[in-house]
């Protein structure tokens, strides 16, 4: 994760370059420029030698960019081609969408982000309006040049990026379009940032009270990417059937963006069927708010797969998480934080108290080098309930809990539900499965896990195709998640994928050496041509 104490320092470059006139030619490279493939002149053939006929790709560039509604128009930035002979017209997005508009799926067109791209302007924490919606049609591909490039959906505005199981929307890098990535590529651009008006903690202003309109934060340090408020039902729109590839650009030190960053996002926001692939930081990091993501596929990410902070209170269901193959890299499946700071509004017991609930998850751990030293890290004033989960971590510890506030008994005044709960969770761990620190011993962590009904550490996986439940998993006793939280859907199995007939992950995802989701899914290294 990009730690909370670095949040104030990240993304300043994005705003400095938001107005192109403020940046030199070397500061922002317009996607497609400098990488346009121009065919070399064909040499005169030797007499008697036939001229070779190139194999054409299946995509030819459009003659012009679509005419979208509103004053902010698309800009034709030349032709961009891959190594398979496909060529597209590169249509650059404006730096800010000021009216509701739609990016259509158009033959021979890809859309590029020329730096930070804003959807609307910040309407403030106390606002109730919704001004600009960016609609993105199924099958659209948007790419970013390497660097501090990201999409920011500001408070009081929305994104409506809704793909289909066969036509996902893809956010990726320019190198992916050119065909210059492989299964170890990462960290090429910033990602997608959603900014909402739901409650948060750890306010920028030291005197601001958490959970009020005065409490707001700047997303991972980005100047002007503000979030926070009091509306836990706030909507930042919808993202469904979406891939986010090769994100997590490093700005300085440990300051990075994730693949997807919902910040102060409320329950009116719909996030489902989202894959984050090969982020150099977290797959998804949720800062406060109360959104309920569903059907997540997190593959090859280099820090934590799901990181939650600053008072997030929500549920996540159907989560498939796989660390990268052929590279001993990656940290934890979950990092659940509410660390204490030095201000009165960022202590471990400030409200709202974080409470993460996750149901029906499967995690495949391959790394032995993660800084958390465990498949799951829980610390500070955070509550956690896990139900119907599988943890495959044979070479690393499974559970680490830091800080006595995390393991104390329930306290209504502090919104503390008590010790973390592990219900119908099966784990395969290293010889040291439990870790603790800051007053918490490994023995305490063990006793908490073993108190969980239907949970076991004596799990030997029988998963097929890496993540599909087999006989062992089917025999495990599940718990109805709806008894934990009414926002959950009732299930009768443990893990993310019930059996071979359960194919919610297929088609809209992309394949890599890390994980294959079947022939209906394309390769992460390729851009779809239909």
Structure, explained:
By secondary structure, the protein is mainly β. The protein has one domain. Helix content is 5%, strand content 31%. The chain contains four helices and 32 strands. It has helices at 12-16, 174-178, 442-450, 471-475; strands at residues 75-81, 87-92, 96-97, 101-103, 109-113, 117-119, 133-136, 141-144, 150-153, 158-162, 169-173, 191-195, 217-218, 226-227, 237-245, 250-252, 255-256, 260-263, 270-277, 284-287, 294-299, 306-309, 313-322, 334-338, 354-364, 374-380, 382-392, 397-402, 421-428, 434-437, 510-511, 522-523. It has a 15-stranded mixed β-sheet that branches. It has an eleven-stranded parallel β-sheet with strand order 3-6-9-12-18-20-22-24-26-28-30, with helices on one face. The chain is globular, with a radius of gyration of 23 Å. The protein starts with 11 loop residues before the first helix and ends in a 7-residue tail after the last strand. Residues 1-54 have low confidence and may be disordered.
Morphology call: globular
Assign a percent range to the helix content.
under 10%
The low-confidence parts are 1-54
**Integer-rounded radius of gyration:** 23 Å
Distance between the termini: 35 Å
| Number of DSSP strand runs | 32
Average pLDDT score: 90
Number of domains: 1
Structural class: mainly beta
% residues in beta strands: 25-35%
Number of DSSP helical runs:
4
Q: What summary fits the major beta sheet?
A: 15 strands, mixed
Region (Disordered): 34-59
Organism: Sphingobium quisquiliarum P25
Keywords: Signal
Biased composition (Pro residues): 40-55
């Amino acid at each position: 994760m990009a730690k909370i104490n670095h949040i104030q320092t990240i993304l300043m470059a994005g705003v400095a370059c938001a107005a192109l006139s403020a940046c030199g030619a070397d500061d922002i490279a317009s996607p497609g420029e400098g990488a346009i493939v121009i065919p070399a002149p064909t040499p005169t053939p030797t007499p008697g030698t036939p001229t070779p006929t190139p194999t054409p790709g299946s995509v030819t560039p459009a003659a012009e960019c679509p005419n979208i509604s509103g004053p902010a128009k698309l800009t034709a930035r030349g032709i961009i081609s891959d190594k398979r002979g496909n060529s597209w017209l590169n249509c650059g997005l404006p730096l800010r969408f000021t009216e509701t508009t739609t990016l259509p799926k158009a033959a021979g067109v890809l859309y590029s982000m020329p730096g930070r791209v804003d959807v609307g302007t910040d309407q403030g924490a106390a606002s109730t309006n919704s001004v600009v919606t960016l609609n993105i049609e199924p099958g659209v591909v948007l790419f970013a040049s390497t660097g501090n490039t990201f999409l920011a959906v500001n408070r009081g505005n929305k994104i409506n990026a809704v793909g289909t199981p066969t036509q996902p929307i893809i956010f990726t890098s320019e190198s992916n379009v050119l065909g210059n990535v492989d299964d170890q590529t990462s960290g090429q651009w910033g990602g997608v940032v959603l900014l909402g008006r739901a409650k948060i903690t750890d306010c920028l202003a030291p005197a601001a009270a958490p959970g009020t309109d005065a409490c707001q934060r700047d997303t991972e340090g980005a100047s002007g990417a503000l979030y926070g408020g009091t509306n836990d039902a706030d909507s930042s729109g919808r993202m469904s059937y979406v891939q986010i590839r090769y994100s997590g650009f490093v700005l300085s030190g440990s300051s990075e963006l994730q693949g997807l960053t919902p910040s102060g996002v409320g329950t009116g926001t719909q996030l489902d069927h989202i894959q984050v692939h090969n982020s150099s930081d977290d797959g998804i990091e949720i800062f406060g708010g109360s959104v309920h993501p569903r059907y997540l596929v997190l593959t090859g990410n280099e820090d934590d797969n799901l990181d939650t902070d600053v008072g997030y209170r929500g549920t996540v269901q159907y989560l498939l998480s796989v660390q990268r193959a052929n590279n001993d890299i990656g940290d934890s499946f979950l990092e659940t934080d509410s660390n204490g700071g030095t201000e009165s509004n960022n202590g471990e017991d400030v409200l709202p108290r974080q409470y993460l609930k996750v149901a029906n998850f499967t995690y495949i751990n391959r790394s032995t080098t993660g800084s958390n030293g465990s498949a799951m890290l829980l610390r500070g004033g955070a509550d956690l309930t896990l139900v119907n989960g599988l943890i495959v971590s044979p070479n690393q510890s499974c559970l680490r809990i830091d800080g006595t506030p995390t393991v104390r008994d329930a306290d209504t005044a502090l919104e503390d539900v008590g010790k973390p709960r592990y219900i119908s969770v099966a784990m395969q761990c290293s010889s040291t499965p439990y870790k603790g620190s800051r007053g918490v011993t490994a023995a305490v962590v063990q006793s908490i896990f073993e108190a969980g009904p239907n949970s076991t550490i004596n799990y030997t996986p029988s998963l097929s195709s890496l993540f599909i439940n087999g006989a062992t998993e089917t025999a495990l006793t599940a718990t109805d998640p709806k008894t934990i939280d009414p926002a959950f859907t009732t299930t009768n199995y443990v893990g993310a994928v019930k059996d071979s007939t359960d194919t919610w992950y297929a088609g809209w995802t992309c394949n890599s050496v890390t994980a294959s989701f079947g022939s209906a899914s394309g390769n992460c290294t390729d851009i779809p041509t239909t």
